[in-house]
Here is the input.
Amino acid sequence: MHTIERIGKRFWYMTPEAETDRPVLGMVVGRDKTLMIDAGNSENHARYFLSELRKREISGPDLVVLTHWHWDHVFGLSALTDAVSIASQATKEGMEKLLPLSWRIRKPKRDQDRIAEYGI
Here is the structure.
């Protein structure tokens, strides 16, 4: 189970959860801006982190920095529509390699589909 932790006056983070491949997410809270570290493994992951921070009166991120391109650190980016994202060139290139891939869950084939496809 996730917990929200605080280090000092300006840094908050959510602990990882191995069962759902959710890595640590962080938020640096400045006087005028907030910086989120990584975007999470899904929109739900990012939204959950932000909702927990709102309970602590922390606003959403102005900026999000992506530490690297692995799916569990970037797939939540689409939920952060008001933030400017920052990444290295290597991270950008890694993310671009993910674009043509399909991440949908496929339904198992029914027996009648197998018969039509394989003639059995």
